[in-house]
Each structure stands twice: as C-alpha cells, then as structure tokens.
Amino acid sequence: MKQKFKTPYYLIDERKLLKNMKKIEYARKFSGAKSVLALKCFSAFSVFGLMSKYMDGTTSSSFYEAKLGYDTFGKETHAFSVAYSKDDIDGLKKISDKIIFNSVSQLNHFYNDVKRLKIGLRINPGISYSHFDLADPARKYSRLGVFEIKEVEKVLNKIDGVMFHYNCENGDFEIFSEMLDKISAKYDKVLKKINWVSLGGGIYFTKDGYPLDKFCAKLKEFAAKHNVQVYLEPGESSITNSCELVTTVLDIVNNGKTIAIVDASIEAHMLDLLIYRLSAKLEEKTGANEYIIAGRSCLAGDVFGEYKLKRKLKAGSEIRFSDAAGYTMVKKNWFNGVKMPSIIVKRLNGKTEIIRQFSYNDYVKSLS
Length: 368
Ligand SMILES: *Cc1c(COP(=O)(O)O)cnc(C)c1O
Fold this sequence. Notes:
By secondary structure, this protein is an alpha/beta fold. The chain folds into two domains: about 15-240, TIM Barrel; about 245-325 and about 330-365, Lyase, Ornithine Decarboxylase, Chain A, domain 1 (Beta Barrel). The protein contains 13 helices and 17 strands. The protein has helices at about 15-30, 50, 65-70, 85-95, 105-115, 150-155, 175-185, 190-195, 210-225, 235-240, 265-270, 270-275, 360-365, and strands spanning about 10-15, 35-40, 55-60, 75-80, 100, 120, 160-165, 195-200, 230, 245-255, 260, 280, 285-295, 305-310, 320, 340-345, 350-355. Helix 9 (about 210-225) links the parallel strand 8 and strand 9 (about 230). It is globular. The structure holds pyridoxal-5'-phosphate.
C-alpha cells in the first residue's frame, strides 16, 4: 500500500539523486575533475551518506556551512566567504582543507593565521553566463572576486589555487567552452604557478542532453595545459530533479480565474522561484482545466504558477511540485507562521523515512 504522509513535505528521492551522482562520477573518471557539493544550494545531510560516495567533499559560503560539511559529509572541506570575520577564520582553520579568499586585502589580513592550509583566491574574470542580473557575478560594481590580474600576481607566492565562479544555470556547452578558453589565455601566467583551479558551480552538466563527453575532454585539456587539479562546485547540478514539494489543495476560489490554494507557500518554501519570478514545475498530464495554484500566505503574489491540467482539482487534491531540491530547503522560513514542510527521504531501497517534522516549538524558537 502506498504510504500517506501529512502534507506539506519535501520528498527527496535517492534514486533520482543517484542519476546525478552517476554523472558526477562519470565526469570525475573521464575529466579528472573533482566535484565538491555547494552547500548553499542543498544541505540535506540526511542523504549525504549516498552523495559522499560519489563526490569529493563540500564547499561553503560561511563557517556554519563549512562546519556542516565537515561534520556530516566529510572528505574535502573547502571554505569560501565573501568576507571572513576573525571568528570564522579561527573556526575554519581547524576544519577546512582549503580556504578561498574573495579579496587580496582579506588574504593578506589573515595570511599568518591560515598559511598552513591550502589557500585559494577568487578571481573574477569579468565574464559570466547568467540569465539574471541578481545572480550575475560579473554585474556592474560586483564585489565577487579580484578583477585586476596585477593584484593577483602580487600574491602568487601566498596562494596554492584559484577559484572562478562565473556560471549560473549554464546548459550551453559551447559558451562554457569559449569562456574557459578566454580564461585559459588571460590567466595563463597565474595558472602556471598554482596547483588547483576551481571552476565554481552553475554548469548544468548533469542535465539530460548535455554533451558530457565533450565537457570532460575540455576539462581534461584545461587541466593538462596548466598542470592543475580542476574542481567543480556543483550545487544545482548535484541535486537537479531529485525532490518534490508535496502539498494539498485547501480551497478553490475564483476571481476571473480559478485559483487553487495549497497548504504551502512559495514565499516560505520555494523562495528562490519567487525571487527570480519563475513558476514551480508540475509533472503531470496537461489538459483543459486552467488553474492558478497559489500559496496560503497573505502575500498577494504568493503564486506557484498557472497550469492547464487534465484533472479537476478540489479541496483535498494533492499537488506535487517537481525539481524542488535546490535553493528551497536552505531558504525556507517561517513567514506568516505557515507550517513548515516536513523532510521525507525515499531511500535507494524504496523505503520512505520521515527525517524531520517541524512544530510550533520550532517556530517559537526561531523568534524571540
Ligand atoms: C552558488 C555557488 C555555487 C553553486 O552554484 P550552482 O548554480 O547551484 O551550481 C558554487 N560555487 C560558488 C562560489 C557559488 O557561489
């Protein structure tokens, strides 16, 4: 019998996750590039047992993320932060293998504290691929990484590696390849002196149809040319299409269009979509029944999207939003005091486990 859980819940499916992991393993085998999970996208450590078999460690944006990676994932712990505090550095130097600075000033400031670790510097190549200004690292007045090559050259004796994170949702291999060639030429002198290069995240190499073999060949050629270990930092690509947000329709109202209100909220539970003005995805048969599917918070624009469905919805109907792993659970919040979705994992063996349920107490504890 099919188990029935109380909605709302995020359902992480390890078999779907495994498909991405196999591609990451394939990329590692045929390109030599190591992959570290970007925790800012996905931090559901209940499935790290599976992921850590296929990936080389984690990368982070803060001390807490780095510590989570160290405690729950293991293997290599990479630290990055747009700006470290002294407390961050004191914590990180006990747990991280690599510490990547965002600026030359921070590198110089903390150099003596961390010189026993492998030190990296984020370089901003001034080129990027992104559909959104908000997520474009090369946007005007960007603070992400060092722009001037001369600045980098002055500290070459202090660094062991560099990081370029310049892609966001890039599924176009040809563009990736051209940009890598530009970086390869522009930073040739720098790359000759260091041991590793992280190419960041945002490359959609686990998507169906992506030319994975060409991608591997490209990375391999780049690594050989500069004699460096290449790292990738996949966030979204590690977990794409591996989770659903399962909800129930509570009410149907009509105001020019038919609106189904579910027991979740895009503002609270899939915030990234709202920020980028994207619709949540549904994978079901389309038909003649048109609905706006909306959240239950009081925000007027708490709308998951407009859909044409084959079935008719009524109070009690289940709605499963797909592709709900990345930038969802890490951003969920208690806006409106709306019940937070539980986290449920479907293991490789098909068994389903409730990992976490959130209660009124959790809500209270998040406030003062
Ligand atoms: C956000 C980020 C990533 C992960 O990006 P995805 O688009 O989720 O793959 C990796 N590295 C850095 C430095 C990032 O800021």
